[in-house]
Design goal:
mainly alpha, rod-shaped
Length: 90
């Protein structure tokens, strides 16, 4: 009878070790939850950036005004009937 109790005690200890230390343990689950939280924050940031880029693409596709504005800002577009003034601050 004592042998049976000893075997059961060893069996319980082995199961507890797997629960606290082994693969699928509480520590590993907690660590994975932390990684999931970090990844979800990163995904939200990237989704926000993607939405802004999609809005810009839709704006560029919708009309010539957006394309002309972009050319003016980035490439210095000036029409023939316009006068260019450069204001230099001291």
């Amino acid at each position: 009878m004592k042998v049976l109790w000893a075997v059961m005690a060893v069996f319980i200890v082995v199961l507890q070790v797997r629960l606290w230390i082994g693969e699928g343990s509480f520590a590993q689950v907690w660590q994975l939850q932390q990684k999931i939280g970090v990844q979800q924050a990163e995904n939200a940031k990237l989704a926000n950036r993607n939405e802004r880029l999609y809005a810009e693409v839709r704006n560029l596709r919708s009309g010539q005004g957006a394309i002309e504005e972009r050319a003016r800002m980035n490439m210095g577009l000036i029409r023939e009937d316009e006068t260019f003034f450069l204001v230099v601050e001291p």
